[in-house]
Model the fold of this input.
Amino acid sequence: MAQLTRIAGKSEIPPGTGKVVQVGGQAVAVFNCDGAFYAMDNTCKHRGGPLGEGTISGTSVSCPWHGWEYDVTSGACHMDPAITVQTFPVTVQGDDVLVSV
Done:
């Protein structure tokens, strides 16, 4: 069973933004979508772009390199839902945002 790791305080990831954190040697992108937090692998399947630096719209993140869009709730690519990025469970306890990788 994966362990919960504190990755940030809620105020460190304002609504509509993302943050990249290292958890167990893996780069994880964490997003705040109107107060709901989601985590996924930071690497775009197209050319390896940093998803955590992408633009958020609703629950979609757009890779800053070439614009590939992913649903942060499922990891599915909007262009081809068969292409997915791994997602990770997120828990909020008080002001702490925790992820299970």
User: Anything to note?
Assistant: The radius of gyration is 12 Å. The CA atoms of residues 3 and 53 lie 25 Å apart.
